[in-house]
Description:
Two copies of one chain form a homodimer. Chain A has helices at about 20-30, 50-55, 75-85, 95-125, 125-130, 135-140, 145-160, 165-185, 200-215, 220-230, 235-240, 245-255, and strands at about 10-15, 35-40, 60-65, 70. Chain A is an alpha+beta fold. A four-stranded mixed β-sheet of chain A has the order 2-1-3-4, covered by helices on one side. In chain A, helix 8 packs across helix 10.
Amino acid sequence: MAQSQKPKFTLYHGWSSSASRKVRLTLGEKGLAYDGRVIDLRSFQHHTPWFKKLNPSAIVPCLVLENGKILVESNLINEYLDEAFPNPPLMPEDPIDRHEVRRWSKYVDDVCLPAVQKPNWSKSMEPIAKKWSDKELQEHLDAIPSQERRDLWLRMARNPFKPEEIEKALDVLQDMCMKIEAYLKKSGGPWLFGERYTLADINVAPYVFRFEEERPGKLAPLTRDWWARVQQRPGFKAGEIGGYMFDVKRGIDEAMPEPKE
Amino acid sequence: MAQSQKPKFTLYHGWSSSASRKVRLTLGEKGLAYDGRVIDLRSFQHHTPWFKKLNPSAIVPCLVLENGKILVESNLINEYLDEAFPNPPLMPEDPIDRHEVRRWSKYVDDVCLPAVQKPNWSKSMEPIAKKWSDKELQEHLDAIPSQERRDLWLRMARNPFKPEEIEKALDVLQDMCMKIEAYLKKSGGPWLFGERYTLADINVAPYVFRFEEERPGKLAPLTRDWWARVQQRPGFKAGEIGGYMFDVKRGIDEAMPEPKE
């Protein structure tokens, strides 16, 4: 944390989680200090009873406010932060553009997140899950509140993603990068919606980071320049996005101890 | 349309579509006039090339503005309408409450929409789809841009929802109604977020309507009173929500002619 204020928030997050990275970028851009609690996703900390008491959806990130209110869903946390701490503003002024930023963020969540999970989980979760006995697997699955997540873990344990599935997922991220190029062409830059850096830029940035790691050098010209600019934002440094396997390892090393009840 | 102003919008919608109903309720609450174009979902009008040119996602509702801009996604259309036409305001003032309205609307979309599709599609789509030959089925599937929708049509045609699946889906809607009860208890009413009628009330209303049709008389006391109040809103009448099979039939009778290119 580079910020100097007294922390207002506690952020439960994963270093390698794209959704957590989005929120760290927004906190960084706003210059908001926070107490970070690192959740080790690989040891299932987010599926433990104490975390599910905090957040029944059992997902990161999860932002706890000073008054104890708990916010989840990265796009909606970011929109909260922008409304509660308006400087600098991270949404366009025009209602049509605001609609389009929300639609873009929903696309990133609905389409790009399931895509990035394939290379990510293959690297970080599969080596662990495939070693489980059937009994261990069942215990792990029983702790997961969402069918979608249960399916993912079951796949990692018994039927991991094939290389062609991972390539197809990376094609989805490549298509995302082409959409960024189209936005930049239309707006004239320097950001997706023109002169103002917005949540549209922030919410997609962690996915571009992962795409660049997996298929380096493939960004189209406007997107390449945009991406260089994103990485020069002060908020980007504060967001502490590292190489994927570096951040997975960091997540293990820095995992918070399980709180005593 | 009870409104008297000159229409500002063209709304492509389905009478029986819950997402379309949400947007009609918001237009009604704001007193905004619109040209309605009824899309017959049963004859696949939303999968025709001319409609996909308008909206590549091939879903209703779809709101076309005076300047030609096309908005999709019912929650996000409603938030646009609230920002562009602020009277009466349909979002709370407090940023935390605003976050929670968005999260509630996302829950309705992610959880209640897939649930309501089971009884709805069994009634309206299954009788049609099951008559298709394999060749006809394939032609229909090829026109659908989303895997999720292809899966739904494939199920309707060859492996329709079983009664126990439909009951389980209605349990999801019953759980939604219990959440409404909890909100009303917490806020003290008369609306989910207190004194102000908001998008949280509007976005869930079509789902409560369907639940009441399928399992009449099951609403808890606060929810029953809230539901009576919702139906007395002037915007509710303008939204023209009819019985499900009545609206399916109305959708066929009033379907717009395919435009000549």
